[in-house]
Specification:
This protein is α+β, with helices and mostly antiparallel strands and 384 residues long. The chain contains nine helices and 19 strands.
Amino acid sequence: MKTISQKGHAMNTELKEIVDLTANVKAMVEKKHSDFDRRLNQLQAVMGRPDFAGEAAVHEKGDEAKSIDAWARSGEFETKALSIVSDGQGVVVRGDWSDRIFKLVRETSPVRQAASVLRTSKTTLEVLVDRGEPNSAWVAETGTRAPTAASFLTRHPIETHEHYAYPAVTNHLLADADFDVEGWLQAKIGTRFGRQEAAAFINGDGVGKARGILNYTRVPDEDFTWGADPDAYQIGTVYSGLNGGFGSDGIDTLGDLVDSLKADYLPGAAFMMTRAMRNLLRKLKDAESRPFLQPSLSEALPDRLMGYPVFLAEDMPALGTDAVGMLFGNFAQAYTVVDRMGIQVIRDPYSQPGFVRYYVSKRVGGAVTNPEAVKALVLGIKPE
């Protein structure tokens, strides 16, 4: 049988164990609170950053919001990222990449510079196209006023398509290079995206990519009709009268091209052509040997032809018989580019040991939305 002294010692030991356990629990709770406060402060910093275009954020819970929520629950965070947003899979989205790459895309795609550019948070954007005007009539003071038809609106859905780059860089190169590897990579991707978009906006077939201006049926301008079905849109065409080039009346041909566009579209109109076509135009001169093409005296300003700016688009066809030598029109009216909320950049240092992979993607679409506002010049003889 235990003595009173022994019982007292056992009770003191148990009490000490309870006190120590309570202290440990308290320390654990305080640590959890500290970790939560730290993650909450970081989360608030992330949520406070401006979005890609400086506009108000979309209120629906998108991919970034979901990924931040997942990060908040897990507590995983990589502080070396330039703009820090976890996607829930342990990789990092770098937001400032999007800004820089998009700037390069905008600068290198001539159609994007001239066309209307809209943004959407959806896969498809429906553009409303106004194809007519309300009917009207004269009437006497006491005459009968019959109802008149309203304006004809067409819904034109433009779907966005993804294009991407997926380069890899070794960890050693990132650590040891004497130049900004990521900045160089951004410039390369931005230039590539710009060229890829420019090609699609001119020649794209609309399957998995934007539909280009030259993918639409071309008809002699006097036969042009604007149908209700966007898939059946036509482009009015003027012919040079000489296979692969201009005849002696080249200036008259250019005048016919400009005059084929309705007066309402002329403010803001421009030419689009290749450098080879521009070089051919340099040889066209008036009776006093003055060139019709007016070269720009500033790098920031385009050349001008017939008083209208000239955009260079190397994705236009090479000069040849029945090739489209140039486009002329108000491209802001004629063509619509649709961006789905900017560029996504994901930095992945895990899937390939020793390398960092960058997945850069952009969803964009494009289509002719007003075929009346653009005309084509074909280097050939008008078909009978």
